[in-house]
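Quick start: what a row looks like.
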Amino acid sequence: MSQKPALTQITEGVIWKQLLQFFFPILLGTFFQQMYNTVDTIIVGRAVGTQALAAVGATAALINLINGFFIGLSTGATVLLSQSYGARNRQGVHDALHTGIALSIVLGVLTALMGILAGPTILQLMGTPENCMADAKQYVQIYFCGAVASMIYNMGSGILRAMGDSRRPLIFLIAACFVNILADLLCVVVLGMGVAGAAVATVASQVVSAALVLLVLRKQPEEIRLRWKSLRIHGSLLRRILLVGVPAGLQFITFDLANVLIQSGINSFGDVTVAAWTAYIKTDALTWQISGAFGVSITTFVGQNFGAQKYDRIRRGVWVCMGMSVSLIAALSILVLTFRSFILGIYTTDPEVIQVGASVMLWIVPFNAVFMPVEVFAGTMRGTGYSVMPTVITCTCVCVFRVLWILILVSRWHTIFMLALAYPLSWVLCAAVFTIAYFRGTWLRKRIAVHGMDPEPV
C-alpha cells in the first residue's frame, strides 16, 4: 500500500477526537437504521392496531437470531481488513475486501433460506399469540427476502469503516430511511397492506442501502476498489475470518437464543404485554445504538493500531472510550426514565400498554450503563482478532444466565418483573468478568505472539 493511504489512518493523533469521528457517523447511521424499523412500529401500531404491533414485535427476536449469526460471522472479514490497512498491507486489503463481499452474498442467501423456510415454525415454537400468528408469519417471510441486500450493506459498510470511512455508510442509511418512510406510508396507509406493507418497505430500504455501498466500493481508488472479476473467497483468508467471525456469530446467536426464550416468556403474558415490551425496546433503542457505536469504534481503532503495533495507544483508547460511553449512557438513561410515559405514547394510545411499558423501563433502564465495560472490552479484544474469550464470557454470563433464570425462577414466579430482572443482573455479572479478563492481559500477549509482532509488557 502506498505511504499516503486513500482513506483514514487512525494510528496517530488525538484519541478522543478520532474515536468521536467514528462514533458520531456510526451512531447516526444506527439511529437512522433503527428509525426506519421504528417507523414500521409507529405506523403499524397507529394505523393498524395493537394486534398488528404485537405481531411485528413478536418477530424481533427471531429476526435478530437469524441475522445475528451471519452478521457476526462477517465481522471476521472487517477485523482482518482493518489490521491489514493499519499495517499498510495492500494485497491483504485487496483480498479481504473481495473475500468479504463474496462471503456476504453467500451468507445472505443462507439467511434468506433460513428465515423464509424455518421462520414460521420458530414463531410457533416461541409461543407467538394465536391472534398475531398470521401477521407475524407474513412479516418475517417478506422481511427475509431482503437478506442478501442486508448482508451486503453490513459487510460493505464495515469494510469502509475499517479503512477509516464512517461518513458514507451514514449517508447510505439516511437515504434508506427516507425510502422506508415513504414506502411505509404508501404500502400501509395508502394501499392498506398492513403488516405485509411494513415488511415490503423494509426490504426496499435494504436494497437501496446495498446498492449504494456497492456503487461506492466500485469507485474507490485502485488499491481498494471492488472488482467483480476479483470476487472470490480466498481459502487462506477464510480460515482467519472464521477464527474471528465464528465465535462472534455464536455469541450473537446464543445471545439471541436467550432473547427468543425471553420473548417466549413475554408472549405468555398476552398481547398487551407483548405490545408494551415492543414499545419499550423501541424506546430504549438509542441507548443500544450508542453502545454499539462505541463498540464498533473501538474495534476499528484497535484493529488499525494493532496492525501498526501501537499497544500503548490501544490501552489509552480503551479508557477514553470507556469514560465517554459510560457518561453518555448514564445521562441518556436519566432522560429516558424521566419522560418514559410520554415516549411510550408515541408508539401506542393504549393506556394499559403504556403503563406496563413504563414499569418495565423503571426496572431495567437505570442499569444500562453497567453494560458498557462489556461492549468496550469485547470490542477491544475482537479488534486484535481475539474473538473466543469475548464469546465465552458473553454466552456464559448473559445467555446461559438468562436461560437458567427464566427456566428456574420465572417459571416459578411468573411475573413480568421477575422476567425483566434477568437483564440488569446478567449485565452486572458479565461486566465484572470482562473487567477481570481485560486486566489479566493474556488476550493481548497471545495475539502479539500469534502475529510474531514485537512484544511489549502489558
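That is the whole record. The mean pLDDT is 80. The longest helix spans residues 90-125.
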